[in-house]
Amino acid sequence: MKRLAPLFVLMASVLWGSMGIVTRYVVAIGFNTRQTAAVRITSAAAVLILFLLITDRSKLKLRKEDFKWFLGTGLGSLFINNLAYAATVQRASLSVAVVLLYTAPFFVMIMSVLFFKEKLTVQKIAALFLSFAGCILVVGLSGANVGGNVIITLLIGLSAGFGYSLYSIFGKVLMGRYESLTVTVYTFILASLASLVIAEPVSMVRIIAANAEKMPVTVIGSVITLALPYICYSAALKYIESSKASIIASFEVVAASLFGVFLYHELLDIYNIVGIVCVVAALIILQLKPKSESGAP
C-alpha cells in the first residue's frame, strides 16, 4: 500500500480537478455560492453515513478525545477552505483564487517539519516551488484581478490555502487511529452542519423541491468529486509524508485545465503547457529516491 500512496493522492487530485463540472451543474440549478458548497458537502455526507450504516457501523465509532481533531478537519479545513475560497472567487479572478489556494503546500511543509519532524530536503523544496510555479502558469495571472481591497482579498485567499493545508495535518493524526472512511465521514458531517447554517436552508429546500429530478446527478457527482477524493487522500496520508502528499495534490490544477480542454473546448497557450510540464516534473522529482536510498542494497 505504501508504494500506491502517491497514486492514491494523484487519483484524489484528478477527482478534485473534475469538481468544476459538478459545480457548474449545481450552480445552473439556481443555488448561490454558499448553497452550492452546502449541497455538495451535505450530499456527500449523507451518502457516506448511509453507506457505513449499511456496511459497517463500527466505522462510525470514535473516541471523545479525538473529537478535537475532527473539528480540525471538518470546520478548520473543509468548511473554512470552501468558505474562504468562495469568498476569494467573489472578490478576485478565478486564477488568483486558485493560486492563493495552492499556497497550501507551503503551509503543510512548514507544519510537517514543526509537528511531525519531517525532513526538509532540497528535493521537497525544489518540487514545491516547481509545482507552485506550474500552478501559476496553468491558471495564468496576466491581467489578474485582485479586487478593490488587495490586502483583505489576499488574506482571505491565504485563509483558503491554510484551511486546505490543515487536512493534511489533522488528517495525518487521525489516520494513525481510524480508517479513511471514518475520518472522511466525520469531516463531512461537521462541515455540512456548518455549511447549512450559513446557506439559507429554507431557500435551499425550495430550490431542491423545484428541481428534484436534477438532484440524483448532484448527489452522485458530489460523492465522486468530493467524498471519494477525500477518502483516497486520507488513505494515502497513512503511508506518505503530508508535505509530499500536498505537493502531489497540486496536480488538481492540471487535471481541471485538461477537463476544461476536453469537455468545454477551452484553449491552452504556451504558458499553460509549460505550467503543466512544471507540475508533472515536480511529481517526478518527488518520486526520485535520494542517493543514500538508491545506493542501498
TrEMBL record:
Give the record's keywords alphabetically: Membrane, Transmembrane, Transmembrane helix
**Could you give one GO CC term from the UniProt record?**
membrane
User: Known Pfam families for this protein?
Assistant: EamA (PF00892)
Q: Which InterPro entries match?
A: EamA_dom, EmrE-like
Transmembrane regions: 36-55, 67-88, 94-116, 125-144, 150-171, 183-209, 215-233, 245-264, 270-288
Q: Which residues form the EamA domain?
A: 6-139, 153-286
* Family, as annotated: Belongs to the EamA transporter family.
By what name is this protein known? EamA family transporter
Which organism does this record belong to? Extibacter muris
